[in-house]
Amino acid sequence: MRLLLVEDDAQLASGLRRDLERQGFAVDLADNGIDAEHLGRVEPYDAIILDLGLPGRPGLEVLAHWRADAVATPVLILTARDAWHEKVDGFKAGADDYLAKPFHVEELLARLQALTRRSTGRAEPVLRADGMVLDEERQQVLLDSGGEVALTGTEFRLLRYFMQHPGRILSKTRLTEHVYDQDFDRDSNLIEVYVRRLRDKIGRERIETRRGQGYVFQPKSS
Ligand code: CA
Question: How far apart are CA 217 and CA 91, in angstroms?
Answer without folding.
Answer: 35
